[in-house]
Amino acid sequence: MVGLMLVSSAPCNAASIALPAQSAVPGGVAIVPLDVESEHAPVAMSAGHRVLVIRQDARWIAVVGIALATAPGRATVSLREPAPHFIGFEVAPKQYATQSLKVPPKQVNLSAADLERVEKDRVSIERSLSHWSDLAPQALQFGQPVPGVRSSSFGLRRVFNGESRNPHSGMDIAAPAGTPVRAPLAGEVIGTGSYFFNGNTVFLDHGSGFISMYCHLSKISVKPGQKLGPGDTLGEVGMTGRVTGPHLHWGLSLNHAWVDPELFLKQ
Ligand SMILES: [Zn+2]
What we know:
Blueprint: E1 29-34, E2 44-46, E3 49-50, E4 52-56, E5 59-65, E6 73-79, E7 85-91, E8 98-101, H1 105-108, H2 112-129, E9 149-150, E10 157-160, E11 163-164, E12 171-174, E13 180-182, E14 187-195, E15 199-205, E16 210-217, E17 219-220, E18 227-228, E19 233-236, E20 247-254, E21 257-259
Parallel strand pairs: 8-10
Antiparallel strand pairs: 1-5, 2-3, 2-6, 4-5, 6-7, 9-12, 10-11, 12-20, 13-19, 14-15, 14-18, 15-16, 16-20, 17-19, 20-21
The chain binds zinc ion.
C-alpha cells in the first residue's frame, strides 16, 4: 500500500513531505525516527534546542540540524513524553577545506566602533535564529532563491593572517546585482537588518525552528510580519556588507544550527 494519508488535528502535521538529504556530519542533517505514539508532534530537543518534528507516513521523525562545531560521535534527541528518554544517533566526522589568506591587517582588525556594531548584529541575528513557531515547514526540498552558480564553500574554514574566523555557514550564489531573490518556500518575515558583515539581510521563518537568511541584498522589499508564498520576491541581489562582488549568501538554520543548503535542493 502506498499513499497512506493520515488525518489528524495535530498542529505540526501534514501529508508526508520530501525530506532533505541525510548527512549526519557537522553542518549536516540527521533524520531520527522517534518511537512515540502520539497524535500531536512530540517536543524533542537536541543540543539544547527544540528540533523540527514531522509526521512521515505513520510515524514521527526528528529532522535535526547538526552545528558545524559539533564533535563527531554520539549525539541525542531527548523527549519528555511519554517518559523522559533519549534517542541516540551517530555524528560522523567531516573534513572541510581550509582557506588561509594574508590580508592587510587593517582589513581584519576592526575598530572599537565596528566591534560594537558586530556585537549588536550578533544579538539581532541570534534573536532571529531562536525564533520558534509551531507550524510545520511546507517543504524540505526546494529550488535555490536565485538562479546562478552555487559555491560549494559551506563549512570552509577561513584563516586570516594566521587567525581562525568562523567557518562559512551558508551557500554563495553568484548573480548580477538587482536579480530578484525569491522565497524558496512559504515563510514569514521575522527580521530584516543592515549588518556589518552580512549587509542588508532578511530572515524567514518556515516553522518549527527552520529559518532561512538572505544577505548582501541591494534592496529589501519586505517587512517583518509579512507572509510570503514560494516564489515571492523578498529583495534583490547586491553587495552590501563585507563582500568583494555581488552574490547572495543563503543560510539555512535548523534548531539554531547552520546546515548545508545543498542538502535541501531539489535534484
Ligand atoms: Zn557567503
